[in-house]
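Is carboxymethyl coenzyme *A placement plausible here? Inputs below.
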Amino acid sequence: MSATAELKSSGLEGMIAGKTAICAVNQTSLIYRGYEIADLAENATFEEVAFLLLVGHKPSESELKAFSKELASQRAIPGAVIDYLRTAGPWLKSGSAVPMDVLRTAVSMLGNMDPNSQAVSPEADLEKAKTLTAQIPTIIGHMQNVIDGREIVKPDESLSHAANLLYMITGEKPSDEHARVIDVSLILYAEHDYNASTFSSRVIAATLSDIHGAVTGAIAALKGPLHGGANEAAMEMLREIRSDIGKDNDPKKIQDWMHQAFADKRKLMGFGHRVYKNGDHRAGILHKLGRQLAEKATDDSLAWFELGEEVQKIMETEKNIYPNVDFPCGLTYFTMGIPVPQYTPIFVAARITGWAAHIIEQHANNRLIRPIAEYVGPELKKWNDG
Ligand code: CMC
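Reply from A.M.:
I modeled the complex. Tokens:
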């Protein structure tokens, strides 16, 4: 066997790497602390789901009111972080940094300024988790304001978490429908057991490192296009298809493009999943909402969705590979006019709750995570033997 073949990783596929009471990812269901995702997407708000994940139970009316008020009142970020976002403006414009990189550094800076930064008790983690959940949308919004050359849009405490996020990015109060679609996307993105970024955050937390450090690492893991970065990559792929074949969504041209991609052994972004082999049920929920928005928007918005649907049909019928949540997410955020490089940061604005819940769970019952590797390198030899 060649050395490369011997090093091919199993990616820990199918391995149980620990226990959790937060989330169950199954072929046919996704459950957050006992509640199915379709139920939550239909009936809960992001604030309710954030409480459920972080605190561990469905909030009472008074708990929800206090929690939502606390989140809304903690949205402002320190001046030093705003100065950093302004400093990063030219890097973002030149492309030497992307918003996920800048968000990662800003979160790390917030840790430096938190007087309780070193504490790892579940109580301290929860307080810091709430602050991070409140502040991450502000970092995203201010960063986009800097990119657009707009005055910094201050957070609006009267708006829900989702509506405020959109408001800070665009400077315009969103419609109820847009706010609800973002809200649902945040619910769908909030948690997903031992995915790569959450597992990274648990590995970091398990050394008894702090929550800001664990979240900084998780953001780095989420950025990659095989994970959260796929929502941006999926939309970029659709843009590439349109630029290659034109706007008219000719099925033959789409099919030719796809066949060429198959021949080139390309990974089609927003498709496939390590666990879900018969489809990601989050994808159907978001596709439906996004398509409804596109139908009410412009003919072109609908044309983008129709292009996506054609690509999806070919992937399903010819490869038996289904879209994951990132595929309809890209199309939905595009319909809403959100800049593509902010799609994965918005994923962070949701997944912070899942990461924090796992970091709290890890710190509360900790043992160092330290697997072993099978050595396949050279035989033992002497340094002085030549
Ligand atoms: N496009 C083309 N072929 C694919 C794709 C795809 N998106 N996904 C899987 N395949 C093929 C793969 O080439 C392999 O074929 P073969 O057996 O002939 O080599 C087969 O399907 C099995 O795939 P795999 O690579 O063993 O699957 P994996 O579990 O290692 O990878 C994945 C899962 C999500 C990394 C992969 O499906 C992928 O790269 N997808 C595109 C990126 C993406 O959409 N990522 C988002 C993941 S889910 C949500 C999130 O985390 O944000």
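Short version: The longest strand covers residues 23-25.
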